[in-house]
């Protein structure tokens, strides 16, 4: 799995997982989010438009990233989930915690 990263401003970054977010790839996502937060980017948007599949490990990585960002005084939001990802979020009720935004810009409002 590849992870694209874009810096929107001094404290906001966008992470774009491409492919399948499973047990095999979650360590990379956790590490990337940790590095971004340590570098001062405490507002993280995970753009899921290129994520074909997510399993429980992937969900765990998102929740772990949320915790990491919040402990640093920030937040983690998700944007543009694919239909499969949206379905998994709904089935697990995580769409109530990780509320999907229609776009990356909408994730933090006026970001």
UniProtKB/TrEMBL annotation:
<dbReference type="InterPro" id="IPR002645">
    <property type="entry name" value="STAS_dom"/>
</dbReference>
<dbReference type="GO" id="GO:0043856">
    <property type="term" value="F:anti-sigma factor antagonist activity"/>
</dbReference>
<protein>
    <recommendedName>
        <fullName>Anti-sigma factor antagonist</fullName>
    </recommendedName>
</protein>
<comment type="similarity">
    <text>Belongs to the anti-sigma-factor antagonist family.</text>
</comment>
<dbReference type="InterPro" id="IPR003658">
    <property type="entry name" value="Anti-sigma_ant"/>
</dbReference>
<feature type="domain" description="STAS">
    <location>
        <begin position="10"/>
        <end position="111"/>
    </location>
</feature>
<dbReference type="InterPro" id="IPR036513">
    <property type="entry name" value="STAS_dom_sf"/>
</dbReference>
<dbReference type="Pfam" id="PF01740">
    <property type="entry name" value="STAS"/>
</dbReference>
